Amino acid sequence: MTTFADTTFTPPELIRNFCIIAHIDHGKSTLADRMLQLTGVVEARAMRAQYLDRMDIERERGITIKAQNVRLPWQVNGQDHVLHMIDTPGHVDFTYEVSRALEACEGAILLVDAAQGIEAQTLANLYLAMENDLTIIPVLNKIDLPAADPDKYAKEIAHIVGCEPDDVLRVSAKTGLGVEALLDEVVKLVPPPVGEADAPARAMIFDSVYDTYRGVVTYIRVVDGKITPRERIKMMSTGATHEILEVGIVSPEPKPSRGLGVGEVGYLITGVKDVRQSKVGDTVTSEKKGATTPLAGYREPRPMVYSGLYPVDGSDYPELREALEKLQLNDAALTFEPETSAALGFGFRCGFLGLLHLEITRDRLEREYGLDLISTAPNVVYRVVMEDGTEHVVTNPSDWPEGKRAEVYEPVTKCTIIAPSDYIGAIMELCQAKRGQLGGMDYLSEDRVELRYTMPLGEIIFDFFDSLKSRTRGYASLDYEESGEQDAELVKVDILLQGEAVDAFSAIVHKDHAYGYGTRMATKLRELIPRQQFEVPIQAAIGSRVIARETIRAIRKDVLAKCYGGDITRKRKLLEKQKEGKKRMKMVGRVEVPQEAFVAALSTEEPKGKK
């Protein structure tokens, strides 16, 4: 028999929907843990650190990837309230997850580390929240740390948010200090949700996950009307209709209920197995007498970085397709399409929001679905206009059109870098080397500065963040957003093994950086590819012009070992015979590139030595 979580709909005036905005490692998962404990939804014996981070990768790396929602009971002045908290990711690659969470809330807690101050990515998410007219509650965390300087950073936050430094709350999520007062402030400051209880049902899908046994679990925020089990619903963008099998709340485990009313956040299950039936951002309404106007959706996520994913074992291709389809439901920002490579066989061209997104996706595919994968070097989307006026959209270097090109356009981004003012020179030097143009500079406080640059996306995605961190001793933070495209002098560099191009190593780079890329790849491959019985030339070429070359020397058998003394002509005859054999072998021999060489050459790190 099903036990229901509650029997009546909560009045909207007693509901508060809020999310937590913070940078990686500023303590939002720890704050969420304290809230779960204080409100009593998790028993002390069941408590564990980072309770809402369900994935192993999240727990190992200490980052939040998926937004998680939870319903918390809280009492203020003897009145019971219901708080819906959504724990959001902090990394720039997952801004899309944050934008969806913000749509389902009326308030946001801006959480800042009292020892580090506000970071660029937090600032970007704060502006997103302000655009959505959310009530901002500024909070300084980790005030118990010896390095904390709450007064200094309270002034900085007050300057950005537009409040008084005394309005900034001070808490320690680790010890629980000030968390009760914060929950009271949420009830006091965050406005209750607004909606019409008697209107046709309208609910917004803000997340969905795939459950092996139950199919698609869709997370919704009800705006108007009510959603109850056993009624038939319609998805407004696709027109698909389903019967609701279960409606419930998350507290913090899923609990079935008799329905969800205005302003409530919960989940519904329709038993649908097809991942494309539950689109994030869609509006759910009743099939009969449903709403006619959908809720204002939010932007579709656009991939910023493309990379090829190939199974090491070609027979795993169907498994990879199935794994990507399932992962796409849990991650609405992932896109993929089939592609083939002469060197790597069958695989998929996948679109990601950034490098961390690529790394996490690959990690999840390997862990959760037991796949062994190779990913090609990441690249962005280029638009090539030929002299005859035809246009080509290039997401893969192998699609680079031959013939005379009139113009090549590359995507550009607006970058925000926040760092201590001591490092301004080093940051400017790095950005100029990456073809960046300074847009402006502001001092947030006496010793912290915000720099705004316009930079090509292709320069950022590879190793820009690592270089920025190393030049600023880890103090700088980066955020970027797309900002159109610009004309650029780009060329395709091919890597040739014995005169044959290996498509997996091709790259589209700026004309000035082509020689550097060519020499780097040629040197890397010389160290990684095992020596053959014949000499192998490795060349980097732009079109038919070779710009760099390395040679893998042949393995030579000592054919003179059996000669002891005797005439020199005998030795020369043996060496000439060996030379002829090598020449013949070179004509018919093929260079087999081992998988480890592909993996090592396509990784962004420098080779550690021969494999």
UniProtKB/TrEMBL annotation:
One of its GO terms (molecular function) is GTP binding. Its EC number is 3.6.5.n1. It comes from the Bacteria. One of its GO terms (cellular component) is plasma membrane. GTP binds at D25, H26, G27, K28, S29, T30, N141, K142, I143, D144. GO terms for biological process: positive regulation of translation. Pfam families: EFG_C, GTP_EFTU, GTP_EFTU_D2, LepA_C. InterPro entries: EF-4 (IPR006297), EFG_III/V (IPR035647), EFG_V-like (IPR000640), EFTu-like_2 (IPR004161), G_TR_CS (IPR031157), LepA_C_sf (IPR038363), LepA_CTD (IPR013842), LepA_IV (IPR035654). It is a peripheral membrane protein. Residues 13-194 form the Tr-type G domain. Its main location: membrane. It is an enzyme of class 3 (hydrolase). Keywords: Cell membrane, GTP-binding, Hydrolase, Membrane, Nucleotide-binding, Protein biosynthesis. It is found in: Cell membrane. It catalyses: GTP + H2O = GDP + phosphate + H(+). Required for accurate and efficient protein synthesis under certain stress conditions. May act as a fidelity factor of the translation reaction, by catalyzing a one-codon backward translocation of tRNAs on improperly translocated ribosomes. Back-translocation proceeds from a post-translocation (POST) complex to a pre-translocation (PRE) complex, thus giving elongation factor G a second chance to translocate the tRNAs correctly. Binds to ribosomes in a GTP-dependent manner. Belongs to the TRAFAC class translation factor GTPase superfamily. Classic translation factor GTPase family. LepA subfamily. Belongs to the GTP-binding elongation factor family. LepA subfamily. PANTHER family: TRANSLATION FACTOR GUF1 HOMOLOG, CHLOROPLASTIC (PTHR43512:SF4), TRANSLATION FACTOR GUF1-RELATED (PTHR43512). NCBIfam families: lepA (TIGR01393), small_GTP (TIGR00231). This is Elongation factor 4. It comes from Lentzea albida. The gene is lepA.
